[in-house]
Amino acid sequence: MTAPRGIPWRVTWGYLLVLLVLPIVALLSRASTVGWGDFGRIATQPVALSAYEVTFVTALGTALVNGVMGTLTAWVLVRYEFAYKKILESLIDLPFALPTAVAGLSLATVYSSNGWLGSLVAPWGVRISFTRLGVAVAMLFISFPFVVRTVQPVLQELDREVEEAAWSLGAGQGQTFRRVLLPPLLPAILTGVALGFSRAVGEFGSIVIIASSIPFRDLIAAVLVIQRLEQYDYAGATVIGTVMLAISLVSLLVINLLQSWGRGDEI
Amino acid sequence: MGITIEGVSKRFGDFQALYPTDLTIATGSLVALLGPSGSGKSTLLRLIAGLETPDTGRIWLTGRDATHTRVQERNIGFVFQHYALFKHMTVRQNIAFGLEIRKLPKPEIEKRVNELLDLIQLTGYGERYPSQLSGGQRQRVALARALAVQPQVLLLDEPFGALDAKVRKELRAWLRRLHDEMHVTTVFVTHDQEEAMEVSDQIVVMNHGRIEQVGSPAEVYDHPATPFVMSFIGPVNVLSAHSQLLHPVQEGSVFLRPHDVELETNPSSEGISAKVQEVIHLGREIQAELILADGQPLWVHLSREQYAKQPIAPEQWVYVRPRSVKVFPQELRR
User: Is B78 in contact with A171 (Cβ distance < 8 A)?
Assistant: First the structure.
């Protein structure tokens, strides 16, 4: 803090101002023109409430599923040696790199009623694309890498000997996992879940392809914003955007708290 | 019987870590597995613990065939070189871990943990985390954790290897005292011959996946069974013995401890002439580096008294009289 605040300091703040602060301020100032009464009314419209619910509940559910699957994947990557491991490693990051529209297109090919997997479950009356399940599949896809990438380095640093020590003291595999391995992994898993959750909440490109975006069925908040804009309802778009911004900020705060908790144990 | 090993061997891929091996370790003894890295000593220890499964042979622990018993049920205590403490648990929770797994009543766990904290001289440190302890303290906690479950056999894998010299010395003496009080059969792995000599009742010297010799520290030092044991335990000169300089004249190499040598400055009929290269004061003793008349180097240790009586200097000619030399039969040389 006592270091002279030179060029890096100013450049950083200038950059943050232009890139982050101004757009947020602009959104809030637009929202403030709506007036409190209208803001509350628009923000709590049944369509909007349903869109929040679809977005946040589905995002939370998929983030939790990936919490388990991502941990498992990280485990396999760290603990097993196998052919083509490097290829699998890069494959895991694919959702980071792939344009989301392409992701939506490929997912639709697999999960639509006449797709490879979609056609298998269709006889039981299960539809994936154009339903909330489709939203979930897209969210699973794009939030998958986060937990793998947060857990993997922590798992790599965990000493095999710690496990062996637990065994030698009489702990079985389950007890060893629960009492010895999971506690140090938990902050990383939760961080990954929170990151995945934020990413899923913000997802648009793939969901707009795989979902029907029909209100009260599989309409997510981000698509609702677009729909409002298409109807020239700027106030509506701004209000729903502001609500999403608030929730995103809160979840980022939670991520930061989780990360400092993760660092807390080791000094 | 404490531990009996019959024909146990282990292979990792192309590497034969342990050739079929027999070994008996008496109940209540303190045994060192001593050897260079890759000698199979850690593999043998891990096989006893059940952390590895043998390719062949049987392992008996306190009279029971434990070859196919899981590590959890062998009732052993294992101490690792890098402590392997549970970092997210306090010292107290670490020590209590095995007792909680065994579902002992809370008050009893509390009592046992307190006793162990006393034993490792860390009373008052129970609520600390491993990261707040020094290396020596961590290893004591690891030992207490292993002892908490009252193991039949205590196994330590290079337990002092990660500690600095001073702490290592303290902990060695402490382990010895602890063993004398508790009499639990203890096996520890080390590559440090001094450590093995100082702490153990019996030393098992290993090399290239085989046991070279089993014996008390004095036996392996004074009567080494193989050239490897002689050169691994204690300092040694290896001279080629075709030199008629040393008698009895025999084939092969002659092993000679640097302190088993007398030096004369007066020409003597028995001595072998050598030229002094260098004289180094090591404090406790004096080390002299010589070149024998046939060109072979020889280094000797002289006591301060010897040196005071008969000082030597570089470039001086002296006469070497070995007190004892060791020549091994051809088949023992590898």
Answer: no
Interface test with A, best of B90, B101, B141 (most A CBs within 10 A): B101
CB B86 to CB A168 under 8 A?
no
pLDDT at residue A264 tops 70: no
**At residue B222, does pLDDT exceed 60?**
yes
- Give the residue from B52, B75, B85, B86 with the most A CB atoms within 10 Å of its CB, the best one to mutate: B86
CB B149 within 8 Å of CB B75: yes
Asked whether B307 and B259 are in contact (CB, 8 A), the reply is no
In whole angstroms, give the CA distance from residue A68 to residue A64: 7
| Greatest Cα-to-Cα distance within chain A, rounded to the nearest angstrom | 69
Q: Which residue has the higher pLDDT, B25 or A118?
A: B25
Q: Which residue has the tokens 């006893």?
A: B48
Angle between helices B106-119 and B91-101 (to 10 degrees): 130
**Residue contact B84–A161, C-beta within 8 A:** yes
* ipTM confidence score: 0.85
pLDDT of A71-91, one tens digit each? 999 999 999 989 889 899 899
CB A68 within 8 A of CB A140: no
Contact B88 A170 (CB under 8 A): no
Q: How big is the CA angle at A99 (ends A97 and A103), to the nearest 5 degrees?
A: 100
Place of tokens 């959702």: A95
Question: How close is the nearest chain B Cα to the Cα of A70, in Å?
Answer: 22
The secondary structure element, H or E, covering residue A91 is helix A85-92
Which residues of chain B lie closer than 8 angstroms to A184, CB-CB?
Answer: 87-88
**What single-letter DSSP state applies at residue B271?**
P
Spatial neighbors of A152 by CB under 8 A, at least 6 apart, are A74, A77, A78
Orientation angle between helical segments A46-79 and A132-157, nearest 10 degrees:
40
Which among A162, A172, A175 has CB closest to B86? A162
Distance CA B28, CA A85 (A): 48
What phi and psi values does residue B38 have, to the nearest 5 degrees? 85, 10
Distances (CA, A) of B290 to B235, B267, B295, B312: 16, 16, 9, 11
